[in-house]
Amino acid sequence: MKIIIFSVLIILSSLNTSDSQIPNFRIHPSSNAQIEPSITRHPENPLIMFAAAYTISNSFRSEGNYFTTDGGVTWFGSDTCNTGSSTSNHGGDPGPVIDKDGRFILTHQGGFIVGMYSTFSTN
Questions:
Q1: Predicted TM-score (pTM) above 0.70
Q2: Cβ neighbours of residue 50 under 8 Å, at least 6 residues apart?
Q3: Which residue, 52, 56, 58, 61, is CA-closest to 27?
Q4: CA 4 from chain center: how many Å?
Q5: Residues 95-120: tens digit of each pLDDT
Q6: CA–CA separation, 66 vs 60, rounded Å?
Q7: Closest CA to 49 of 22, 76, 29
Q8: DSSP letter at 110?
């Protein structure tokens, strides 16, 4: 029985083609790598969405913040987490959130100083 199940799994996995993969979509037009994307929508207005990705450009690492107000037709934002302070110690795993009051919150891992960090914007 185990051999039959294993054989069926092998056959099914060989039928999988690369066409079944979802195509890459660059949220923000830049040459930086945008990995670990995550997206959330406004709790009261589904046309407003907030996406974030871990961005890498050579040795510089940050979290990109991307926004849409038209349901994802157009996006604006930046590949850098512009917090007004240094963008060092960014280690990925971005977690965008829009709370019930419309506050945009971004969490991320620390890079060389271990921990979870967050920043927020009300505009």
A1: yes
A2: 39, 40, 41, 42, 65, 66, 67, 96, 97, 98, 104
A3: 52
A4: 40
A5: 899 999 999 998 888 877 888 888 88
A6: 18
A7: 76
A8: B
